[in-house]
From TrEMBL:
It comes from the Bacteria. Keywords: Cobalt, Hydrolase, Metal-binding, Metalloprotease, Protease, Zinc. The keyword Calcium does not apply. Its cofactor is Co(2+); Zn(2+). This is Cytosol non-specific dipeptidase. GO terms for cellular component: cytosol. It is an enzyme of class 3 (hydrolase). Its EC number is 3.4.13.18. Residues 208-293 form the Peptidase M20 dimerisation domain. GO terms for molecular function: metal ion binding; metallodipeptidase activity.
Length: 487
């Protein structure tokens, strides 16, 4: 790991982040980072254990003079989103993140950085290791699988935690204090379909959509970014209607919580339409690139000759599938009527796989209003059931209802204003923070979320601001000193 990261200020934070990022920790494969965190807690002589679902809890007593303060839970998630550029050779299961400094930013070479939520986890580690930072009694809660199911939070039982206040360190703008978030539900459409022999006289093509920004399907969903699956479907639909295009296979997107950056489809057309197909597609590509010229300047769409396959998707199944994907809502569905500029409900058409007689479409629907969440989920279900798909809902988790009268909110607002000469933005976000879920078993716990500035989360463009980390660290230390006294 580069020394330039370890030498950044504040050193306790960046050193722990470097330690953490040396450990592979993709979602649902957290065995190594769980053991790493338990070894860390035990090495400090602190009470350290994992619960039934494998969340890690480490307890540290209050420093001298802070024993009468309310106990706090400092919480972050151990897993990270694993995304990489197409031309980057990297194995998230075995390699640590390769980081570098770029001006005010810490970045990774061709992959996600893991600052979401690695900087939050590193913060907690630095506090646990410290010998000179004043703090009340701390329960450090390191949850698993936040990014692909909120599994750790959903399965944390009541009665394990004893803290009065929860500090969630998973917000990504340093001038924001989060007091609410969206819930979510996975919507999955699947079907089997019949294939037929490739007609004689056909020509094979590979269509590639790439170069999109991608991003967080909650925090970035309102930015008008391109969705590779929707763009690909537009191309396939036009090719089918105008030239009888038939699908061989599609592989688009990767994770539900990442706006899809790339999609590749293998198709065939009748040889008699070869030149006309390419000419027409280039016109459509020009239109799409013009539409996205502001938000997606690096968008590339390639149409290249390919080997002829032996089998293709039958036309009736293909037509229903293409129309269903076209009808499936993607992006903002409704803005909040109660909080200015807050996305209330959205959907991300995240991953599409079509191959060998099976198709799967994976979506993540988010909303801060439970009824609206399922309204959109049912709209998606209806579109896909009309083409014969089986649709399931899974991984549903609740949103976090804002508490504007929170005691810890008042503490944070006052400290921020004193340190920065202006008030912070008190917001609710469209991402899925774990606070709402944790609150179901700990309803009396006062919860707040904040963090350093991180841009491009869930994409290889993820980067963390060095200057913001310094501002954030100072904020954290004063918060710990000013936790309210127990009643």
């Amino acid at each position: 790991m580069s020394n330039e990261i370890r030498n950044l200020d504040p050193k306790p934070l960046w050193n722990k982040f470097a330690d953490l990022n040396a450990v592979p920790r993709p979602s649902k494969k957290e065995d190594r980072v769980i053991e790493f965190m338990k070894d860390f807690g035990n090495s400090l002589g602190l009470e350290t254990f994992e619960d039934d679902i494998r969340n890690v809890i480490i307890r540290k007593p209050a420093t001298k003079g802070m024993e009468n303060r309310k106990a706090i839970v400092m919480q972050g998630h151990l897993d990270m989103v694993h995304q990489k550029n197409n031309d980057t050779v990297f194995d998230f299961d075995t390699q640590g993140i390769d980081m570098y400094v770029d001006g005010d930013w810490v970045r990774a070479k061709g992959t996600t950085l893991g600052a979401d939520n690695g900087l939050g986890v590193a913060t907690i580690m630095a506090i646990l290791e410290s010998t000179d930072i004043a703090h009340p009694a701390i329960e450090a809660l390191f949850t698993i699988d936040e990014e692909t199911g909120m599994t750790g939070a959903l399965n944390l039982k009541g009665g394990i935690l004893t803290g009065d206040i929860l500090l969630n360190l998973d917000t990504e703008e340093d001038d924001e204090i989060d007091i609410g978030c969206a819930g979510g539900v996975d919507v999955t459409a699947s079907a089997v379909y019949d294939e037929e022999d490739t007609p004689e006289g056909s020509v094979g093509y590979t269509i590639t959509v790439k170069g999109l920004n991608g991003g967080h399907s909650g925090m970035d969903i309102h930015k008008g970014l391109g969705n590779a699956n929707k763009i690909m479907n537009r191309l396939l639909f036009g090719g089918f209607e105008n030239f009888g295009l038939q699908i061989v296979e599609i592989n688009g997107g990767s994770l539900r919580n990442a706006i899809p950056r790339e999609s590749v489809a293998k198709v065939i057309i009748a040889g008699m339409y070869d030149e006309a197909f390419v000419f027409d597609m280039q016109e459509v590509i020009g239109d799409i690139k013009k539409e996205f010229s502001t938000t997606e300047p690096k968008l590339e769409i390639l149409i290249e000759k390919a080997d002829l396959p032996s089998k293709v998707m039958q036309v009736p199944a293909q037509e229903g599938f293409l129309r269903a994907v076209y009808a499936a809502h993607n992006g903002v569905y409704r803005m909040s009527a109660d909080m200015e500029d807050l996305v209330e409900t959205s959907n991300n058409v995240a991953k599409i796989t079509v191959k060998n007689g099976e198709l799967v479409v994976q979506c993540l629907t988010r909303s801060s209003v439970e009824s609206s969440k399922f309204d959109l989920a049912n709209a998606l279900r209806s579109a896909f059931e009309l083409c014969g798909c089986e649709v399931t809902f899974g991984g549903s988790y609740p949103g976090w209802t804002p508490n504007v009268n929170s005691e810890i909110l008042e503490v944070l607002v006052n400290i921020y204003e004193k340190q920065n000469g202006e008030k912070p933005k008190v917001v609710a976000c469209h991402a899925g923070l774990e606070c709402g879920i944790l609150g179901t078993n700990y309803p009396d716990m006062d919860m707040i979320s904040f963090g350093p500035t991180i841009h491009g989360a869930h994409s290889p463009d993820e980067r963390a601001s060095i200057k913001s980390a310094q501002k954030y660290w100072k904020f954290v230390l004063e918060i710990l000193e000013n936790i309210p006294v127990r009643n």
